[in-house]
Amino acid sequence: AETQSYKESAFQFEEYMAEMAERVNQALDDSVPLRHPLKIHEAMRYSLLAGGKRVRPILCIASCELVGGDPVAAHPIACALEMIHTMSLIHDDLPCMDNDDFRRGMPTNHKAFGEETAVLAGDALLSLAFEHVATRSTGVSADRVVRVIAELGKCVGSDGLVGGQIVDIASAGKQIELSELEYIHLHKTAILLEASVVCGAIMGGGMAPDIERLRKYARYIGLLFQVVDDILDVTKSSEELGKTAGKDLATDKATYPKLMGIDKAKEFADALVAQAHKELDYYDFAKAAPLYHFADYIAYRQN
Ligand code: GRG
Predict the structure, then answer these.
(1) Per the record, GO CC terms (predicted)?
(2) Measured in whole angstroms, how far is the alpha carbon of residue 162 from the centre of its chain?
(3) Could you read off the pLDDT of 149-161 as tens digits, one per residue?
(4) Which atom of ligand 1 sits closest to the CA of residue 192?
C-alpha cells in the first residue's frame, strides 16, 4: 500500500523527537529568565521546564518545515504553544478543578508554590505566550503573525480549551452521549494540536489547502490520543485485576470503551490513524515523515 513507504525512508523518529525536544527546551529556558519577583518566575519555570514530551512545539516546527518554511521561524510559536499547554495543566491540577498532587512525576504547581502562585503562574504564562509570538517572530510578515495570534486566541477561549474544560466539568458523574464526549476531547486535546500544526503552516507560508489538510490531520490525531488513552486504561486495569474480563476502571468518567465497547473503540482508533495518514498523502513521504510517524507514535504507544 502507498502509506507503507513512509516507513521505508531513513527517517529516525526517536532521534528526531529527542533532538527537537532538546532545541525546544533550550528556547523555553531562555524565554523565562529568572528575575524579580523571584517567586512567580520560579513557579513559571518549574512547570514549563518540567520535562513534557514537547509534542505541540515539535508538531508546529514539523508543520512549518513541511510547507517549505524555515523551522526557526516557528520557534517563538512553538514556545508559546508549550506555555499555553503548561498553563492549562497548572490550572487543571488546581483543587477547584481536578485537584491533582502530581504531574510529570513531580508535585503539581500549587503543591510546590501554593494555590495563589499557581493561579498567577498560569495567567502569566498565558500572557507571555501572546507577548512572545508578537515580539519574537522576526523575518515573517506581520500578517502571518496576526493570523497566528488569532488562531491561538481562539484555541484557548470559550470555543477552545476553556469550552472543553467547562463541558467536562459539567459532565462529571453524568451519563453522556458519544457526541458530548467527542466535544470534550476535540476542545480539551485536539484543538491545541490543531493550533500547533496550523500556526506552523501559517508561519511557513502554507496555503489555505495545506492549512485545511493539516487541521484535519491534527483533529484525527487529537481524538486518537484520547481513544488510545481510554483503551490503555481498560487494558491496564484488567491486567492489574488479573484479567477480570472486560472491567473498566472504577471511575465515573465516560470513555470510548464504555460508550462503544472495547472492540469498536479499537476499530475507531485504527480508522483515525488511517484518516490522519490520508491527509498527508498529498505530500512527499520524506517530507511528511515526522507527521506520519507522529500519528503512529500516538496510536501504538503502550502508556
Ligand atoms: C486555557 C485559560 C485556560 C484555562 C485552562 C484547565 C483548562 C482550561 C483546560 C484543560 C486542558 C487539559 C488539561 C487538557 C488535557 C490535555 C492533555 C492531552 C494533556 C496530556 O498531554 P501530553 O501527553 O503531556 O502532551 P506532556 O506532559 O508530555 O506535556
Answers:
(1) cytoplasm
(2) 15
(3) 999 999 999 999 9
(4) 16
pLDDT of residue 244: 47
Q: Residue 209 is placed in which grid cell?
A: 489547502
> Could you give the ipTM of this predicted complex?
0.95
d(C-alpha 235, C-alpha 241), whole Å: 10
In single-letter form, the type of residue at position 295 comes to A
In angstroms, what is the span from residue 52 Cα to ligand 1's centroid? Answer: 11
Burial bucket for residue 11 (CB in 10 Å: 0-12, 13-18, 19+)? middle
Separation of 147 CA from ligand 1 center, angstroms? Answer: 23
**d(C-alpha 188, C-alpha 287), whole Å:** 29
Residue 245 pLDDT > 70: no
d(CA 103, CA 126): 19
Residue 24: closest CA among 73, 66, 58: 58
CA of 85 to the centre of ligand 1 (A): 5
Best probe residue, ligand 1, of 82, 104, 186, 188 (max atoms within 8 Å of C-beta): 188
3 alpha carbon – ligand 1 mean position (Å)? 31
